[in-house]
Design brief:
This protein is mostly helical. It contains 11 helices and no strands.
């Protein structure tokens, strides 16, 4: 089934169901394609969905939510090296596409350096298949932990739990937005991106309660997260260039790369903030309560995911 909550079912049962489906598919990816970076990437995306899902329990089951969030975070790190390297190559290619009028030579040496580092990440640091197997075992442990997950049976208390989980992330997102407005560093934008990514997953889970409205909000979140994700890749790439500039081209080329990274990063952050400001214009408690009321109404009218 899709990554959607069914309002007609108890919230805890839906969390168990969806988490189980994501774990099963991630384990299958890791077991079947342990040597395939793209399949590992798909498994890591499922772990991000798992983290967003269990964080819905923060208001009612904070110890469970924090422990399982940490489990899936650490599991994803175990197979992250090669994928993180690929992301930097994709970021450089995105920069070259944005500034297509620049000479391809400007990006050529930088790309070769990033490809060499990607290849080393694939060939060292342990066998990818072995690390994938360890990650799969951590996911199976998470599946066992889910068997005992439960929320109060009262529909109102389950709805309150949902609202609290949503509000927790929204409060953090608003806090991070205020920090971005004050400081605007790469780190603060990255923190904001993580909260908006969680919000996008939460909205995807809740899309059945009012598809036309929630889908538009989710698309805002996805657009913002995509722009901020690429901006973060640029920040990591810039740090690598600063550490060993000669590996990325001549002094003139490196200066030009720095300027282009800064220029496109500013564009991406500005684009993202348009979406973020719209998403977070409503107070967290009010938005969370509104979504929970929609959940209640969908449950009453029998809406299906």
């Amino acid at each position: 089934m899709a990554y959607r909550l069914d309002p007609a079912a108890p919230l805890d049962a839906e969390i168990r169901r969806i988490a189980g489906e994501q774990i099963e598919r991630a384990v299958e990816d890791l077991a079947t394609h342990g040597e395939d970076e793209s399949a590992v990437h798909e498994a890591r995306k499922r772990m991000k969905k798992l983290r967003a899902l269990v964080r819905l329990a923060l208001g009612a089951r904070p110890d469970f939510a924090r422990a399982e969030n940490a489990r899936y975070r650490d599991a994803a790190k175990g197979v992250g090296g090669a994928r993180d390297r690929v992301a930097l190559i994709e970021a450089l290619d995105g920069l070259a596409k944005r500034f297509a009028d620049e000479s391809p030579r400007l990006f050529a040496k930088a790309r070769r350096t990033l490809e060499e580092r990607r290849d080393r990440a694939l060939g060292t640091g342990g066998d990818l298949a072995a690390r994938a197997a360890e990650t799969a075992e951590a996911l199976r442990a998470g599946r066992s932990r889910l068997d005992g997950f439960a929320l109060p049976h009262s529909p109102k208390r389950q709805r309150d739990a949902l609202a609290a989980g949503l509000a927790h992330n929204l409060v953090q997102a608003r806090r991070d937005l205020r920090t971005v407005r004050r400081h605007g560093t790469a780190e603060t934008f990255h923190d904001l991106r993580k909260r908006i990514k969680y919000l996008g997953h939460h909205l995807r889970l809740l899309e059945p309660v009012w598809p036309s409205v929630v889908q538009a909000m989710r698309e805002d979140a996805d657009e913002a997260a995509e722009s901020l994700g690429r901006d973060h890749d640029y920040a990591v790439l810039l740090a690598e260039i600063e550490a060993e500039p000669a590996r990325f081209g001549t002094a003139t080329d490196v200066a030009r790369l720095r300027a282009l990274l800064g220029r496109h990063g500013e564009e991406l952050r500005a684009q993202a903030l348009v979406h973020v400001e719209r998403l977070l214009s409503e107070k967290p408690e009010a938005l969370a309560a509104r979504l929970a009321r929609l959940w209640r109404e969908a449950k009453r009218t029998g809406a299906q995911a």
